[in-house]
Amino acid sequence: MAQLTSIHRFPVKSCRGESVDSALVEPWGLSGDRRWMVVDEAGTVITAREVNRMLLIDPVLTGDGLLVTAPDLPPLSVPTPDPAAQVAVEIWASRLTAAPAGPEADAWFSKALGCPARLVHLDDPTRRPTDPRFSGPDDRVSFADGYPLLLATEESLAALNDVVLESSGGGHAPLPMTRFRPSVVVSGVAAWAEDDWRRVRIGEATFRAVKGCARCVMTTVDPDTAVREKEPIASLARIRRWDGATWFAINLVPDTPGATIRVGDEIEVLEAVPPGAGPIRPAR
Predict the structure, then answer these.
(1) Which one-letter DSSP state was computed for residue 144?
(2) Per DSSP, what are the bridge partners of residue 112?
(3) Which residue numbers delimit the MOSC domain (predicted)?
(4) Contact status, residue 101 vs residue 120, Cβ threshold 8 Å
(5) What is the number of structural domains in the chain?
(6) ∠ at Cα 245 (46, 191), nearest 5°?
(7) How far apart (Å, rounded) are the C-alpha atoms in residues 108 and 76?
(8) What is the pLDDT of residues 50-85, one digit of tens each?
(9) 12 near 276, Cβ under 8 Å?
């Protein structure tokens, strides 16, 4: 039986995530996922693609905000800011507003990153639509890259690690799933089966699989050390390269917001295309 083996949320975009046993599915993602973001002085998103050390920042959701820790810095409690104050922010093609966390949080994140930085909170995720090419006009997303959830399978990771091991002559340790920052991880299916899914049920929640996930250099940064290497992009380029990108995992949009998913939930594929058709991706 295919089942949900782990759930992950990332309170601050590009910082460390936390594993949970259950999560409420909201229209824009898992509850508490990527509602905070770090931006530069112009309001443009800062990510671990450029500042690798972001992966060493460990945020934990509290009852009234965040507790953040990082190497060589004292912990900081950040209350959820007043949404009455808004600043302009930019994340990829999205331009919207968010609530500033304030000078103390800005100073802490600037020290942690080694560059000027500001922390903001997305008090109202309905401000950010998803890409209309792959989703509906009413779909929304938090500060995740493009879509509310990302699903990966243990079998696909195992298949990729076989290639990594072969490419390294047996010298490379298996890559952990944390390299790929999925929201949900599934087991009990064939490797790469998720490519063909179009609708899936996880427990009582149903989702549309709207697009494959093209992977960037962020996956090459070790989440434990913030050191960059060539994997997994080098091995993905051997077996999962098309349309000028490398692909791993699929993006989901909830059709039943308000449902709660739990580790151990059964997975049911409600709609799929014939094997080999591949994930949804930009038209050539």
Answers:
(1) S
(2) none
(3) 124-270
(4) yes
(5) 2
(6) 105
(7) 8
(8) 999 999 999 999 999 999 999 999 999 999 999 999
(9) no
Among 65, 94, 127, the domain boundary falls at 127
Q: pLDDT per residue over 250-278, tens digit each?
A: 999 999 999 999 999 999 999 999 876 66
What are the structure tokens assigned to 250, written together?
A: 């699929």
Q: Identify which of 146, 34, 40, 30 has the alpha carbon closest to the alpha carbon of residue 94.
A: 146
CA atoms within 13 A on the CB side of 238: 14
Q: What is the pTM of this model?
A: 0.95
Sign of CA dihedral 257, 261, 265, 267: positive
3-state class (DSSP) for residue 104:
helix
Cα–Cα distance, 159 to 275 (Å, whole number): 17
Closest CA to 151 of 103, 197, 117, 105: 197
Domain boundary among 73, 96, 127: 127
Under DSSP, the state recorded for 177 is G
